[in-house]
Amino acid sequence: MINYIEESANFLKERGFGTPEIGIILGTGLGQILDKVEVEAEMSYNHIPNFPTATVEFHKGKLIYGSLSGKKVIVMQGRFHLYEGYTLQDVTFPVRVMRALGIEKLLVSNASGAINSTFKKGEIMLIDDHINLQGGSPLGFRGVEKMGERFVDMSAPYDPTMNKQLEDIASENNIKLHKGVYVSVFGPQLETKAEYRYLKIIGADAVGMSTVPEIIVANHLGLPVAALSVLTDECDPERLKPVNIDDIIAQAKKAEPNMITLFTELIGQL
């Protein structure tokens, strides 16, 4: 894997990807932040050696390098998921490549369902902790110790300094920002009523199908990370309605301006 990472990173460097300071992973329906980026280079995933290819129709599948809020950034427009048939190593490979290119911090966004009944769709949750229900670890492979500590401490996987900055930015801009626990499941099917009850019992505030693998690898690489969940639906098992993907995308778009404010102002402070 080390050779693959170096090959991908060198390929990108030769094609205008300089030395980014901050990596950004964009989740479902969260692409408008790119309008704020002064783009210097971009590359479709399927042109990058060793990269997976995004197969979800609302994930664009492009890596973008440029400037945002006075910092050099590299942005993943679209991410990878286990439910697409990829391994945990595939899903997290881009994080390792971004680190090889030079990023010092990672910002992650996703669309998720609100399990906490006080959270409403269209709002945003700052991830303070997580529960991994994806059935494996992106660190579970032979030779992982050559790339970092095998037994990674996860007592504080989300950087407390960046989380505090995000809370302050939300307060200054009158943005309602919840804080809670994100649970990551395999997918792609959504949960049953019984499963939502279970997730609430074990302490989850929001549920999605991504993010946790990238967070684990970021910690493995010693990379400070912060993550925001845009809450796109309400998962009350007693009032559960059939899923509407169009509405989920619409709710992500509704919350996106606030997410952009949080990330762009944070990047300016880093």
TrEMBL record:
Keywords: Glycosyltransferase, Transferase. This is Purine nucleoside phosphorylase. The purine nucleoside phosphorylases catalyze the phosphorolytic breakdown of the N-glycosidic bond in the beta-(deoxy)ribonucleoside molecules, with the formation of the corresponding free purine bases and pentose-1-phosphate. Its EC number is 2.4.2.1. One of its GO terms (molecular function) is purine-nucleoside phosphorylase activity. Pathway: Purine metabolism; purine nucleoside salvage. GO terms for cellular component: cytoplasm. Residues 21-267 form the Nucleoside phosphorylase domain. Belongs to the PNP/MTAP phosphorylase family. The keyword Zinc does not apply. It is an enzyme of class 2 (transferase). GO terms for biological process: nucleoside metabolic process. InterPro entries: Nucleoside_phosphorylase_d, Nucleoside_phosphorylase_sf, Pur_Nuc_Pase_Ino/Guo-sp, Purine_phosphorylase. It holds the Pfam family PNP_UDP_1.
